[in-house]
């Protein structure tokens, strides 16, 4: 497959992501375009290097879109077993968990894109963590971590803060 075909394929990947309402996995893209998953991973890397704002979420690739509303960062602390309860509290109060940010002793700040908006998303995330035997990013710092929270308005964000405080998940709350 020549460079011309690679450029066409990357353009098609970009079109698919632009039209997608939900994350699209590399495996799904590979099947759709009749190439290997690794080819898609390389294509996405090249698209990103060219300026495309593609996020790699636990459920697949997602084109970053600017949204209305507010985004704020909150500092949280909890055990790994409380992750599900924390994510549900945020979603039920009207927030989206955009990401989780933790501090690694060697690499410094690490950010994991989550895009968790609903109980379904929470369940998918928790199942994926269990299936892969992964430790939550907050496990690196005794449960202390940051979340970027996106809400439709300031009032919704205040509800999220209140819900996190009620559950004891806000740092210094």
Write out key terms for the chains shown.
single chain, 6 strands, 44% helix
Query: How is the largest sheet built, in terms of strand order?
Result: 3-6-4-5
Strand share of the residues? 15-25%
Give the proportion of residues in helices: 40-55%
Poorly predicted regions are: none
Give the number of helices: 6
What is the H-and-E element order? HHHEEEHEEHEH
Task: Measure the end-to-end span.
Answer: 57 Å
Q: Kindly state the mean pLDDT as a whole number?
A: 89
Give the beta-strand count.
Answer: 6
Estimated radius of gyration: 18 Å
Instruction: Tell me the overall shape.
Output: globular
The largest β sheet comes out as:
4 strands, antiparallel
Structural class: alpha+beta
Structure description:
This protein is α+β, with helices and mostly antiparallel strands. The protein has helices at residues 3-19, 26-33, 37-49, 83-92, 119-132, 154-167; strands at residues 54-57, 60-63, 70-77, 96-104, 108-116, 144-151. It has a 4-stranded antiparallel sheet. A two-stranded antiparallel sheet has the order 1-2.
């Amino acid at each position: 497959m020549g460079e011309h075909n690679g450029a066409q394929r990357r353009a098609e990947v970009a079109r698919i992501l632009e039209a997608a309402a939900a994350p699209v996995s590399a495996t799904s893209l590979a099947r759709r375009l009749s190439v290997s998953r690794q080819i898609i991973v390389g294509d996405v890397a090249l698209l990103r290097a060219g300026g495309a704002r593609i996020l790699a979420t636990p459920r697949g690739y997602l084109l970053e879109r600017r949204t209305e509303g507010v985004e704020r960062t909150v500092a949280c602390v909890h055990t790994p077993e409380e992750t599900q309860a924390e994510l549900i509290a945020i979603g039920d109060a009207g927030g989206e968990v955009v990401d989780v940010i933790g501090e690694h002793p060697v690499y410094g700040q690490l950010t994991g894109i989550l895009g968790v908006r609903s109980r379904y998303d929470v369940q998918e995330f928790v199942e994926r963590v269990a299936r892969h035997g992964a430790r939550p990013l907050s496990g690196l710092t005794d449960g202390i971590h940051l979340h970027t929270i996106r809400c439709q308005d300031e009032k919704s964000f205040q509800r999220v803060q209140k819900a996190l405080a009620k559950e004891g998940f806000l740092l210094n709350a």
